[in-house]
Amino acid sequence: MKHVLLSADSEVCMYAVPDQVADHLEQYCLDFCVHWIWESPHSKLLVPMEDGQMGAVYGAQDFIDYLNDWVFPHEKSVLVKEFDFYDYEIPAEYQRYPRFNF
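^ that's the sequence the OP posted. Answer follows.
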C-alpha cells in the first residue's frame, strides 16, 4: 500500500491505497469520474439538478468506496490522516505523494 493525497475543493486527506492505484492515480480517478459514475448501473452518485438534468455529486471518500467495493475489494484503502490545508497549498514535505483533486 502506498499513500496518496485526495481532496475535493476541501482539505486534503491522505489515504493508503493499493500500489497500482498510487502508481496510476490520475487514470483511476478519471475512470471513476468519467466512466463509473456516469455509466455504471451501480453508481448512486447521480442526482437530479434544478434544471432537470442529472449531475454528479462526489468526493474523495466516494472514490475510496469505489476502490474498496468494486476495484480492490480484497485490498482495502483506508484514511491515514486529515490535514488542515487545501490542494493548492500542500507543504513541501508532502509534495512527493501522488495527488488528485476531484
